[in-house]
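pinging the channel bc i need a second pair of eyes. not urgent but kinda urgent?? the chain im working w is below, pasted from the shared doc
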Amino acid sequence: MKILGAKIAGYSLNPITQKNFFDLAKLKRIFEIEKRKNIQDYKSLENFIKKFKPGIIFHLAAQPQVLESFNDPYDTVKTNVIGTTNLLEITKKYKFIKSVVIITTDKVYRNANKKIKFSEDYALGGDDIYSSSKASADIITSSYQKSFFKNSKCGISTARAGNCIGGGDWTKFRILTDSSEAFLKNKNLLVRNPKSVRPWQHVLEPLLGYIILAQKNFSNTNPKFNGSWNFGPVNRKHLNVMDFVNLYKKKMRSKSKIIFEKKSDNREKNYLDLSSNKSIKLLKWKPFLNIDQTLELTANWYLSYKQKKDLFLVSSDQIKYFTKLIK
């Protein structure tokens, strides 16, 4: 967004890992102001928004992990449900806000592990606390939009993205983090659920969709851009985890041994895929990177970290490479 000329403010907790994208890439420089506070704190969030007066808000604050939701279900619900409600309540009060994009997840859909592509009108649900809390946030957003923003000058929408990967992710319980850590040090990698299939995509793909969506629903001039939107890869066949880590190992030029667990972890679904036809047709959005390019960019970022390169420049160069593809 800074490259596009936007003035940016950030509201977030401190990074939860010692190694993190914000600090490694020295991202503080791109913000006009930032505040480290919990989105559960209504008054603090409101005061921050009043001070900066954003025209566009991207809401990504969340407890984003399925396995962590089993460890702390109460805080997961407070963050994902109450935090989202706080933002919507504040948005009701201030006319300077013209567009809000609330990012939920591809896991909001009622998933019976069948090989289907979820479209935006598919039933929402969730067997784990993370999925159900994000589905709740999606439903609450839709209810607010229909109840309070129909005649408003502010467009409200939700975005559901596929499994995002890219440089700088050090979040625990994620296959990208586990494999990157192992491959960088040529250590053994233990893989859960090797046969699980996911709609892998580089993080820049849905981010482009979020920006387009924010532009389309700005000032709510066309109600069709409110509502929910999927952003996922369009490959006919997605990689399972086993194929994913094998290909990523080659990109990382690693000598690690990969060990696949035979017993599945039933806390996560085995199959997940999205239909992005609505976004492709109405937003004119589309993915530009195939899985080979996606893993190449990702591996290059982590290898640049190992080589102690300037990760702000590395990240900026990858963004510039991507923007050339979309022109």
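so Residues 73-93 form the longest helix (21 residues). and The mean pLDDT is 94. — does that match what u expected or am i reading it wrong
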